Amino acid sequence: MPVSENPDQWCSRYQGPAAALSAPSQTLRASDASVEHDHDQSTTAPGVTTAVEAGTASAGGLASTINITHQRRVWSRRAASWDHGDNPGLAKVVGAVVAAASPSPSSVVLDMGCGTGQLTIPLARIAARVVAVDVSRSMIDLLHTNADKAGVHNIEAHVGAIEAMNLPAASIDLAVSNYALHHLRDPDKVRLLSATAKWLKPGGRIVIGDMMFGRGLNARDRAIIKSKVAALVKRGPGGLWRLAKNVGRFTFRLQERPVAMETWVRMLQDAGFTKVASTPVVAEAGIVSAEKPETTRP
Q1: For the chain, how many structural domains are there in total?
Q2: Is residue 160 part of a domain?
């Protein structure tokens, strides 16, 4: 679901910063040499160090595998429209995530659910290397095109499910995601946050931008739901049909599974993060950020 203005809507061997910077002038491209394993694909190019190899099946089992297959099909179909969509609300969220992430020139960044590069490319202009992962090959193909147009060549892109990826401990400085994690099942959200806490170096940070609202248990949730219902009702019969579908999706959590900002805060804390902060951005969108402690708690 897009932001505000449009209410319709893997086992790895990451080599660490030194190896990640070994070929800074090359952008990974989709190729026939890609590996497919347990429904995930990793894209490599000759002479470029692979940061994320083909993933294994998600720990979530059959339910997660079904969701991964569904999301791959949906976003492969929507890649072009997502890339060319003009959404001021989404632009505000991207800007807020980039500002909160604030990578350094030496940072190795992981972009989870990178899409066509709305977040990846701005971060790559600042950081040493961005490892970008998305379930859709169509999205990754467009990311390559957009990175070339932007003159950005320090992105390492991979096709695969973020629920199934795995990196060695303490191998990245920053993890980010924008408008992707609400598609994950709630148990997969929890597992991904716990895994990210392991992948980050001590003092590393995570920043998430996403739709953040629950089922109307607080005033912010109720205001968001009310505004979306009103916007769809104004569209007449077509809007009412869209409303009925969205109610079904939201009630049964079939495609979009947003959770409240407070839930994100709690999940980050439960995963061991500190300095957890949350900020509304626009409409249903918000960001949460947190830091991996310098020392592990007992």
Answers
A1: 1
A2: yes
CATH number assigned to the domain comprising residue 120: 3.40.50.150
| Cβ within 8 Å of residue 258, ≥6 positions away | 182, 210, 211, 212, 213, 214, 284
As a whole number, mean pLDDT of residues 265-276 equals 98
pLDDT in tens, 217-245: 677 767 767 776 777 778 888 877 776 76
Domain of residue 32, residue span: 16-212+258-291
Virtual CA dihedral for 215, 75, 115, 196, nearest 10 degrees?
60
Residue 164 has pLDDT above 80, yes or no: yes
pLDDT, average across residues 1-6: 30
The DSSP bridge partners found for residue 270 are none
pTM for the whole thing? Answer: 0.74
pLDDT at 154: 98
User: Which residues on neighbouring strands pair with residue 205, listed in sequence order?
Assistant: 174, 291
251 in any annotated domain: no
Please, which residues have CB within 8 angstroms of residue 72's CB and are 6 or more apart in sequence?
Answer: 39, 135, 136, 161
Does residue 72 lie within any of the structural domains?
yes
For residue 97, is it within any domain? yes
